């Protein structure tokens, strides 16, 4: 008999969705109106053995407690800060995520955001559309990338992929994270504050969670300075958003380029109103190829678990 699973969100890959239907009895929570989801889950909970979720949705203690037969939570994404491990560990519930397969696309977007902010592409697009070029309105020149310093906060797979791309633009590189990264040639700053102080661009690639919450605070933003640019493709929780909005509005920070926010999909009006901010809707991994690969890894982890095989990408 097929294992029963909760599917918290749809994959854009039709192949992934077809495989889930083929191998499991799927209870699609995402298809149910929000006000009916509690009753829907309660009706199927006794037999659910797996949950396919996303990095943003995760799984909380309340939902886990409703699922007495739960064995595995397969996260479609890298971040697991929304997973309540304290509720899962005592029950021996396994957790998997999808590292590696989204590294390149997220790194590509980080560089695209940095370039968009540095060369002011969104504002120049508005300038042309508004007829200001045709009217002879002056354009403020941007600054060149070459010779500048890019500091990378978090030097895992994605941080290193960002560094490799930025090196090709002639930027000098630094990184910071609490532990020293062995086997890399990029220098490590003494602290996040020192990294910001020494950087023209600060690219946030660190994991979310309590340990990193609001670590990019007013002091770090002030250290980055009026010519500095913050790029965040990690988690919105790492940045003190009110402090960021204030620094941008006051000119204490030059620009920001953000793909993630503290309370998605809500974006503070103080940020959307500013001309020196580039905003995208958490789309770092949103390509056809990567979303399929992520969904496939979710399927493969579920199949491995229920087939008695080792998990492909277990979270410790």
Automatic annotation (TrEMBL):
Transmembrane segments: none annotated. InterPro entries: D-isomer_2-hydroxyacid_DH, D-isomer_2_OHA_DH_cat_dom, D-isomer_DH_NAD-bd, NAD(P)-bd_dom_sf. GO terms for cellular component: cytosol. Keywords: NAD, NADP, Oxidoreductase. GO terms for molecular function: glyoxylate reductase (NADPH) activity; hydroxypyruvate reductase [NAD(P)H] activity; NAD binding. Pfam families: 2-Hacid_dh (PF00389), 2-Hacid_dh_C (PF02826). It comes from the Bacteria. Residues 111-284 form the D-isomer specific 2-hydroxyacid dehydrogenase NAD-binding domain. Residues 41-315 form the D-isomer specific 2-hydroxyacid dehydrogenase catalytic domain. Belongs to the D-isomer specific 2-hydroxyacid dehydrogenase family. This is Dehydrogenase. It comes from Pseudoduganella albidiflava.
